[in-house]
Amino acid sequence: MDGNWQSDLEGWLAPFLVALRHKTRARMCPAYIEGLIGPGDRKSIQPMAERTGAASYDQFHHFIASSPWDPAPVEAALLSEADRQVGGNDAWLIIDDTALPKKGNHSVGVAPQYASALGKRANCQTLVSVTLASNEVPVMVGLRLFLPESWICDTARLDHARVPDDVRDYKTKPEIALAEIDRVRAAGVRFGCVLADAGYGLSAPFRQALSARGLTWAVGIPFKQKVYPADVKMIFPVAKRGRPRQRHIPDTKSITAQAMLETAKWQKVSWRRGTKGALSARFAAVRVRIADGPPQRIRDMGAQHLPGEEVWVVGEHRSTGERKYYLSNFPAEATLKQLAGAIKARWMVIIPFFAGSITGLQAAAVSFIFGVTPPMAIFGRSLLYVHSQRVA
């Protein structure tokens, strides 16, 4: 960005400021975004207030955490601009977790829980994030807090935190993600593929819901995810004794994704060039049917999930020795390079500014979880402004 970026920021924000429907918020919003995208490493409220001089700490805090918001027009403005700048058939919609580590237990939703973003169990708030990305430019278009069961079951705690009645039903993170995907699609945002890590990919209902919506997807899975060969057949074997079998069964047992790929052909694939040269790893892919159909007990096979959708199972061997596994409903004619490119696209969009925005979000989210939505839209608008300056 050039040195005159501050002078045109408010003009660029004009449609978004109208959506705020409040003169004071319209005045505070440019100052807050200036604090987010301007110089300085610390993006929490106090240091931003000191740097910009446009408002006091109390004014910034009230703007973000205390002032009542109507999120609908704000989110609509963000989604419209995000689609204009980043949307398209080549865009990715990336589902992920954002963990906000905490030391106490008063922040809404805070609990000891596994945080995939941290790679361990921690005392934290967990947010389900939805990011629209294209050409390595990410725009956060959705952010919702996950409420653990320990919160949902504690009515007094919910009352004390002023959690609205309409969000007190327990929802898993995949269920939250699906609701956000539906919201983004209803707004007309265009994307070609949904990406998610194994925290979402291990959920059969999540994968099945994406396919039922006609969406293309690529998700991480645990190595022990069970799959069948693509040519598995359903048969009615003749029982040796007793009554005839009433239900058909697969003609072979399901095996793990890891075992399915052991004899596959592994190839070195480069998906893009980084600052230090080509980024590559060894990949293999085989067409399979996921073992996520209705469960059925089979005498000589034990309990088995019946074959489900035919998809790709993909393996990745990294130079570090780490191995990862994925499922994707890309077409049968997809190439290994296309599969690898989709899988790795989730990592292309992690840039330092995005991490900085989450730091700012931490300051906003601690007071009132359901005030997270408007700050999220402001962070997304900040990213869009940076992108507009890059391509100008």
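(ticket continues) Second input and output from the same batch:
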Amino acid sequence: MDPRAAFEKFADGKPCLDIDDLSCAVLAVFGVKFKKQDLRDLMSQYRRQEGQGIVLEAFLALVDERRRVFGERDFALRLFSALDVREHGFLDLRCFHEVCQDVCRPTAARATEIFHDMDRSKSGVVTFSDFEAYLAGDGK
């Protein structure tokens, strides 16, 4: 979604985005759900001190900056998005196994093992950060 349109849709007539609005707007623009802590960091970085949220100009700057970051990680993001068929912004074991079964049956036999290797926090979900670290060979 176009950043300006996302801002207008989720600000819903308000002059700025609060953290919940920001979460929806960045999901609409990037197709990836940001972690709550990442959203808090973005709010701190882009919110005007006197303001209660992020105004349009700051949101557009945020999107430009994130696009540069994601541009460097575009391949990983596209892979992650392809696996996230339900568009939740994360992968769970069941969904990951189904995608492996549909796309590459030999991989499906090892889907559980692969998933657990990717799930660094052992929370039962794989975030984009987890996925990116897995692709980079980070075994943490």
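Agent notes: Strands lie at 16-17, 54-55, 91-92, 125-126. Residues 3-72 form a domain with the Recoverin; domain 1 fold (CATH 1.10.238.10). Closing as not reproducible unless the customer responds.
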